[in-house]
Amino acid sequence: MAGAAAAAARAASGEGGEVCVSAPGKVILHGEHSVVYGRRAVALSLDLRTTLTLTPGGTHLTLDLPAVDIKKSWPLGDVEDLWTRLGRPGEACAAPLSETQAQQVREFLALPEDPSGGPRSLALLSFFQLYLAILPRPLPATFAVTSQLPTGAGLGSSAAYAVCLSAALLRLAGRGNGPCLEEVSAWAFRSEQVVHGTPSGIDNSICTFGGAVSFKAGQCSPLGASPLRVLLVNTGVPRSTKALVAAVAARRRRLPEVVEPLLESLNALAERGLQTLAALTAATSPQEEDEALAVLHELVDVNHALLASLGVSHASLERLVGVAATHGLHAKLTGAGGGGFGVVVLGRSDTCTAQEDSCRQVLEAAGYQVWHTTLGGPGLIFH
């Protein structure tokens, strides 16, 4: 606690200096929804990032998060009063807030009892949960967040925010110059529980560790996968991850003998996907690379069909898959589905083909937003 006390003294006087961190978004390649039930999932980091700058000092606690229209400032005395009423969480040992404490935070913020309908309310609640639980005592600071990631699109925007916030708070709390990634990911998972209810943990894992991640039953394993070119496609259709996860759970309760085999098939597909990514990374000749890519593309096709059978596709996603197929390409939804984003999986070569260009032009003419981008790359960075 000596380090935390020293950090508190520096922050209160404005001497701690800025902390700037960033974390990537994510694309789930295999395992959407089935990962919630303990099956395998494979995710890769996306080279679009969220950045948080923490400036300690002053007399207020300020959160500037324009992506969800938040620019709020609270006098530190009011925050200290809340902290005292909560029983001084985090003073002796950082621990998540209880439900009773979380309810008191909702009342302090004048939020509805169940804020699941609004990303602004959820972002405020998760911010205070982490701030009050991680720090040894309230400290004056400004948290300014910018992001290249759209919200509510299945690209890990809330997880990237939670990872940045957890890392910055752990640094402010005096946990050394570089908090361990496992600790950052664990705190980010607590925030994801506020936002998504029953998250799998894969989003906070990939946004923390970066690169590629294999995830199953709470166990995260980094992978040595090669960068993979994709067309990232925004359908423009909003959807709720929490609602879609709940809908799959309801269908599983109604039709367990149908849904369980689908979940097992998604698990087998993710396991084969791991082998295929390894083969693609290890390929030493064009023939070996082509063979691995052919398997990967077939897995993408089957993956989307299985997810559609779970009821999480959407007309906009089916049109995307159809346009890709007419160009000899392979696409699937990514994230929770129901709209949001899809991904057209290409290959490792940096050369853009005529098929890819044509596919992109057709999608953009139909009103989709399309980015030619790469999966894989660094996770949490202290700048």
Quick description:
This protein has 383 residues and is an alpha+beta fold.
Description:
The longest helix has 27 residues. Helix 5 crosses helix 6 and helix 8 crosses helix 9. With 383 residues, the protein is of the alpha+beta class.
Kindly list the characteristics that best describe this protein.
single chain; 383 residues; alpha+beta; 8-stranded mixed β-sheet; 4-stranded antiparallel β-sheet; 12 helices; globular
The termini sit apart by 26 Å
Task: Identify low-pLDDT runs.
Answer: 11-15
What is the helix tally?
A: 12
User: What would the principal axes of the Cα set say about the shape?
Assistant: globular
Q: Tell me the helix content.
A: 40-55%
Biggest β-sheet strands, sense, barrel: 8 strands, mixed
SSE sequence, one letter per element: HEEEEHHHEHHHEEEHHHHEEHEE
Rg of Cα set:
22 Å
- Beta-strand portion reads 15-25%
Q: How many DSSP-defined strands?
A: 12
Mean pLDDT reading: 88
Q: What is the structural class?
A: alpha+beta
Question: SSE layout and pairings?
Answer:
Elements: H1 2-13, E1 19-30, E2 41-56, E3 60-65, E4 70-75, H2 76-85, H3 99-109, H4 119-134, E5 141-147, H5 157-172, H6 181-196, H7 202-209, E6 212-216, E7 219-223, E8 228-234, H8 241-254, H9 256-282, H10 286-309, H11 315-326, E9 330-334, E10 341-345, H12 354-365, E11 369-375, E12 381-382
Parallel strand pairs: 3-5
Antiparallel strand pairs: 1-2, 1-12, 2-5, 2-6, 3-4, 6-7, 8-10, 8-11, 9-10
Helix pairs in contact: 3-4, 4-5, 4-6, 5-6, 5-7, 6-7, 8-9, 9-10
